[in-house]
Amino acid sequence: MTTETESTTDMGVGLALALGAVATIGALAMFVGAPEITAAWGFAAAMLFASLAVVGIHLYWH
Predict the structure, then answer these.
(1) Which domain holds residue 46?
(2) Which of 17, 21, 35, 42 has the fewest C-beta atoms lying within 10 Å of its C-beta?
(3) C-alpha count within 13 angstroms, C-beta hemisphere, residue 20
(4) What residues form the membrane-spanning segments (predicted)?
């Protein structure tokens, strides 16, 4: 007799960690390129990937 098991994945956590790492790289780019356009792109990347990390957690959290 077999029993049903619920299979869960940690996709939300993994996705959040990966996107959080990219957001951290964007924040570092913002810090390194302080008064330049590089800082603006770093800020944009940090905000975008941090937002996507939050979305990933909300989509895949069970």
Answers:
(1) 11-60
(2) 35
(3) 9
(4) 12-34, 40-61
